[in-house]
């Protein structure tokens, strides 16, 4: 049986035991001969680096799997790989796409993405979705929604990593973005759900932020918080097709009035609303033209580059935060006392601040090193 077990291309090096799939013998009459596959070669950091920089998609996919892995030895290798390819990254337009579930984000990405690929662009589509660990919440998980795009040789679609906490997902997504850019992708579209914190995270890793809404779904703002509208450089009223066109246009006018009173999301750029249909493709060209206008405008003013520098500093702080957190919770002196203090706090016998102080002292104490 073991020779019929196969590792998918995205399974991590070494630790792929849980990723094996089994090929069972076919029933009489339709059984094809099984050819046992050789186990894949283990790649070193140079192999990954060379493959990614050469734009080898299989190696890129494996490198992303490495970045997404939670195994400590993979994380060390991934960090080294990212450090090596980072100087070759940064060359894409990074577009964040958010909006309420069902607004048509994926369909719009597919419509726009297909056009861009056919023009010769190399397009990476990524997702940031901290809820994907819960069943059914995975955006882009269902690739059939992007059937056309996934057939485009210039497109690379990567579903959301299952990283648990948003901090972990964000690190993985940022590093994935670096790998894709180093592999030569010149446009990156990052989809996220417009509920919760993930849109703030995506805003912190993209150049331009697009909010997809639909007209006439109850109240004007459709459960989208005002804060999300304030992050948007561009608001797209989608599903402007058929009978829905007048309502979409009215919603666009309404949004433009709202935007007029808000602080611009990007210095020197007037955020604006447009209508489009991912179904008929009406307005999709204009949408992309607006993205290009944004780039021209902000590159000329210097805001494009300034934002990227601010984002790098933010990224550094979030990596420091994540590393410290891991060091703290993995510390033997902390581990040995954490549960007891948790119980004391839960029973109301110890104030949370006192428990925190004690743990931090244990963590810092040289006697514990
Ligand atoms: N009429 C019309 N329907 C659309 C349009 N865009 C998307 N839809 C439909 O709306 C539904 C949801 O589209 P998705 O692209 O999956 O929406 P989404 O925003 O990615 O949804 P989640 O990823 O689940 O948050 C699908 O049934 C689409 O066919 C459009 O422009 N016009
Ligand atoms: Mg979607």
Describe the structure.
The structure is a single chain. The chain has 369 residues and is of the alpha/beta class. It has three domains: 1-23 and 38-86, Up-down Bundle (Single alpha-helices involved in coiled-coils or other helix-helix interfaces); 89-301, P-loop containing nucleotide triphosphate hydrolases (Rossmann fold, 3-Layer(aba) Sandwich); 314-368, Helix Hairpins. Helices cover 47% and strands 12% of the residues. Strands 5-4-6-3-7-8-9 form a seven-stranded parallel beta sheet, sandwiched between helices. It has a two-stranded antiparallel ribbon with strand order 1-2. α2 packs across α3 (72-85) and α2 runs antiparallel to α6 (166-182). The termini are far apart. The chain binds guanosine-5'-triphosphate and magnesium ion. Residues 99, 101-107, 139, 145, 193, 238-239, 241, 277-279 line the site of guanosine-5'-triphosphate.
């Amino acid at each position: 049986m073991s020779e019929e077990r196969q590792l998918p291309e995205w399974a991590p090096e070494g630790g792929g035991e849980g990723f094996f799939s089994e090929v069972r013998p076919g029933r009489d009459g339709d059984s094809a001969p099984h050819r046992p596959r050789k186990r894949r070669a283990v790649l070193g950091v140079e192999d990954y680096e060379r493959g990614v920089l050469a734009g080898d998609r299989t190696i890129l996919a494996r490198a992303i799997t490495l970045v997404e892995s939670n195994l400590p030895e993979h994380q060390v290798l991934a960090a080294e790989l990212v450090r090596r390819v980072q100087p070759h990254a940064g060359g894409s337009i990074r577009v964040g796409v958010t909006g309420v579930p069902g607004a048509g984000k994926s369909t719009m990405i597919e419509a726009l993405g297909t056009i861009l690929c056919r023009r010769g662009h190399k397009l990476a589509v990524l997702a940031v979705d901290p809820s994907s660990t819960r069943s059914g919440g995975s955006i882009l998980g269902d690739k059939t929604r992007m059937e056309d795009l996934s057939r485009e040789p210039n497109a690379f679609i990567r579903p959301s990593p299952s990283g648990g906490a948003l901090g972990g997902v964000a690190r993985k997504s940022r590093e994935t973005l670096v790998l894709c850019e180093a592999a030569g992708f010149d446009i990156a579209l990052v989809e996220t759900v417009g509920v919760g914190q993930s849109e703030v995270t995506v805003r912190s890793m993209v150049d331009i932020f697009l909010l997809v809404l639909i007209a006439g779904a109850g109240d004007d703002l459709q459960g989208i918080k005002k804060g999300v509208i304030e992050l948007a450089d561009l608001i797209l009223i989608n599903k402007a097709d058929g009978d829905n066109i007048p309502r979409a246009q009215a919603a666009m006018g309404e949004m433009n009035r709202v935007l007029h009173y808000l602080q611009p999301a990007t210095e020197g750029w007037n955020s604006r609303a447009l209508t489009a249909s991912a179904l008929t493709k009406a307005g999709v060209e204009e949408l992309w033209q607006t993205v290009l206008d944004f780039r021209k405008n902000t590159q000329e003013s210097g805001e494009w580059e300034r934002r990227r520098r601010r984002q790098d500093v933010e990224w550094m702080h979030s990596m420091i935060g994540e590393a410290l957190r891991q060091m703290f919770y993995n510390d033997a002196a902390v581990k040995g006392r954490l549960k007891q203090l948790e119980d004391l706090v839960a029973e109301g016998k110890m104030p949370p601040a006192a428990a925190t102080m004690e743990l931090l002292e244990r963590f810092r104490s040289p006697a514990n090193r």
